[in-house]
Sequence to fold (201 residues):
Amino acid sequence: MKKFEVLNGVAAPMNVVNVDTDMIIPKQFLKTIKRTGLGKSLFYEMRFTQDGVEVPGFVLNKPAYRKAEILVAGDNFGCGSSREHAPWALLDFGIRCVISTSFADIFYNNCFKNGILPIRVTPEQLKLLMDDASRGANATMTIDLPNQEIRGPDGGTVKFEIDAFRKHCLLNGLDDIALTMEKSDSISVFEQKNAAAHPWA
Fold:
């Protein structure tokens, strides 16, 4: 998993509440178990017409936001089904941080496991960040995970809270498999002892 330390990127405003995982990645794209290739289908039914033509007014279709790495979103982001394809699609598109006042629990946890930083802020802070993000290509924000700060284009700063263990995992690029492999020496010792104690197994 790619480390997350300090991210400088364009922030896209998506002032929509209750964006569920089916909106993030519709069910017809869940047939794959690969984490790549889903970015083109992110928000598919919002980004494209039934004929597959881009909807010009959708935020990620606008020239200023096509390479957005930060999404400033409405309340209760990631609700709905528990599909892990949702963070996969966001990450494959290039989104590495989502900011909202609240997230669905399963989506929130899945973000951390896939290298995406979900940040909870207050409604007042979200309004300020949404205004910053609405500036288009000038809406560059800095997400500073070590110092737990969001810095806006005018130098304003928003502090955020994050669980210490999750912060450690993101800073060091540790997913569940990598966390297990950190204990590989201990696992090898156990396997050797277990094999000696149970040679018939």
About this structure: The chain has one domain: 6-174.
